[in-house]
Amino acid sequence: MDIINFLFFxxxxxxxxxxxxxxxVLTFGAKGDGKAxxxxxxxxxxxxACSSPKDVNFTAPASRTYLLKPLRFTGPCVSHVxxxxxxxxIASDNRADYTTDERxxxxxxxxxxxxxxxxxxxxxxxxKIWWQHSCKINKTEALTFYKxxxxxxxxxxxxxAQQIHVSFERSKNVTASKLVVNAPExxxxxDGIHVxxxxxxxxxxxxxxxxxxxxxxxxxxxxxEATDIxxxxxxxxxxxxxxxxxxxxYVSDIVVNGAKLSGTTNGVRIKTWxxxxxxxxxxxxxxxxxxxxxxxxxxxQYYCDQVRPCDEQVSxxxxxxxxxxxxxxxxxxxxxxxFKCSKSHPCQGVVLQNVSLVASxxxxxxxxxNVNLRTIGVVSPICP
Length: 384
Fold this sequence. Notes:
Layout: H1 3-17, E1 20-24, E2 33-37, H2 39-51, E3 56-60, E4 65-68, E5 71-74, E6 81-85, E7 88-91, E8 104-109, E9 115-117, E10 122-124, H3 128-132, E11 141-146, E12 149-154, E13 157-159, E14 164-169, E15 172-177, E16 180-182, E17 193-196, E18 199-209, E19 215-217, E20 222-231, E21 237-242, E22 248-262, E23 268-272, E24 277-293, E25 297-300, E26 318-331, E27 335-340, E28 347-359, E29 365-369, E30 371-380
Parallel strand pairs: 1-3, 2-4, 3-6, 4-7, 5-8, 6-9, 7-10, 8-11, 9-12, 10-13, 11-14, 12-15, 13-16, 14-17, 15-18, 16-18, 17-19, 18-20, 19-21, 20-22, 21-23, 22-24, 23-25, 24-26, 25-27, 26-28, 27-29, 28-30
């Protein structure tokens, strides 16, 4: 090959591999004034980005506010897409806009190898109108990643979701880092990060303050690791609820390593309904500090989040191989450790290792019903 042909060949290869820089929503007509509806512009820009044969930076530029109705970013895409949210995105507060899909505002559906980078930007779910009509059934999610593989979400600020802030559903190989989630303590059902039927997910360096669980992990989720989590106010870090309406649920291989919880109603919690079935196992909570937390350590197999009292049932989700290691701090209630396990399916293989929880008002206590328990090192309070 002579030098001219070589240079031409090299230029062709480099041009093929180079990314398209900045498919901007502004190019497709977004106003970014916080008043005009920018939904169609975002959708058109996304369709262009997702169909490109080259890797793409899909951008919402800074110093602008984009008003969006419910919007589905559908894949699979031809190449890799990096979504850069540098401006502010705010939800329509007209509930009539959500009649087609009342459960989702922004959803990335079946997009593989996606990167979402929120450096400099923010997402606002404009949730006050939802909080006034809050319902625990079919919660509205502000930002959903559905059936996404090899996903990275980072540096994202999201606030005042309609209900759930960020949800990972039926996804795998996920990295979520440096997310900041904020909603008033009084906002109902505003879970921070929700994980359902998702495998191999790492959540790290996140700060979450909401009116519900900071992190909730439910059925079908496996190989979950959460590290360096700051939580509060809110309902703590929860596995469950599991087994509602006599359903079968499985979660396993979950590690929460390094967390600080402040002013939450629960610390680290596993909650299951009577009548369910399945298993929650291989769960570790370690290196956690509690400050003014009402129920620092709790397993509740009699969870009943409804007006009518739940009937006592024999069937239950089996809980086993749960370890609590290096957990310290102050309990806002006298009961720092609560194990309310099923009579028919006692909790098996529970380990307390180097746990020291004191009550703010005096000596802390433990409730330990139907639990197969082992202690290692210094543990306080101890089971009676």
